[in-house]
Amino acid sequence: MTAMLRTRGLGKRYRRRWALSDCTLEVPAGRVVGLVGPNGAGKSTLLGLAAGMSAPTAGEIEVCGGRPGSGPAQLAKVGFVAQDTPTYPGLTVAEHLRLGARLNPRWDAGLARERVERLGLDPAQRAGRLSGGQRAQLALTLGLAKRPEVLLLDEPIAALDPLARRGFLQDLMEAVAEHGVGVVLSSHLITDVERVCDHLVVLVASRVVLAGDIEDLLATHHLLTGPRRDPATLPADQHVVTASHTDRQTTLLVRTASPILDPAWTVRGVGLEDLVLAYLDAPAAAPSRPALEVLR
Question: What's the whole-number average pLDDT of the chain?
């Protein structure tokens, strides 16, 4: 099966600064991906490369089996909604839909019209006079009516109030269920990722430090508490993500696919937010093993 998103050694440099570096990952088709990381980690850069808005400095990227921006057929596969939910303030809702129909060969006019009616958007209303939530929904409508194979969302709901954000995410999941579109959603809000995503990519300091299906990641990470000890004494298949110590006690977050049989440890599961924060807070955000191995 063709991967929704595949990169190998991908990098993007702006003058002397690498905005993305040595990014290697593979996301299966049909996933709803949460892309998380601090400001400046490279999330927008990765999405821009995937949308074909810029070219890589190093490495390779493939989206839905093709090179981003390589031609009309490839551009038609990808929908993109930027952080500021771009719309044209002087155009009405109806004019946005007509523009979408002219620019997109697979445009679904029925889908666009149905969403506008269901959302209660006035076709004669100029986008500049819509609320933030309404503009976000209009931008999502334009992205979905394009009938893409994958929809890239660069923090489109960051500025919305909780009610508008919930409505946006609910509409997004309904569209995923109905039309089978894959999604990459960049967000700072782990609760939103947990609500709608089934796959996770964590970027820190322009590098991928964690990637995989969320269910598998939670099943293979464990919080260990026990008598103080040197983490280097653990079995080789127990990768230590973070470690903290008191005079008598050690607490470790470890990743392993094997059972933890040492009776000295109290073993607990970890939630998604704590898992993400652990990788964001790991020393230098760099695991001790090669990046490709950590991604497995």
Answer: 90
Residues 296, 286: Cα–Cα separation, whole Å:
15
Q: What CATH number belongs to 5-205? A: 3.40.50.300
Quick check: 293 pLDDT over 90?
Answer: no
Nearest-angstrom CA–CA distance, 190 and 217: 15
Sequence-ordered list of residues with C-beta below 8 angstroms from that of 201, at least 6 positions apart, any chain: 25, 27, 33, 34, 35, 36, 208, 210, 211
Mean pLDDT over residues 187-213, rounded? 92
Within a 13 Å sphere around the CA of 66, how many CA atoms are in the beta-carbon half? 15
From-to residues of CATH 3.40.50.300 in the chain? 5-205
- pLDDT digits 0-9 by tens, 99-135: 999 999 999 999 999 999 999 999 999 999 999 889 9
Q: Are the CB atoms for 280 and 202 separated by under 8 Å?
A: yes
Distance (Å, whole) CA 28 – CA 179 = 17
C-alpha span between 240 and 231 (Å, rounded): 7
Across 21-36, b (16+ Cβ under 10 Å) vs e yields bbbbbebeebbbbbbb
Model confidence pLDDT, tens digit, residues 71-107: 999 999 999 998 777 799 999 999 999 999 999 999 9
Q: How far apart are CA 285 and CA 275, in angstroms?
A: 13
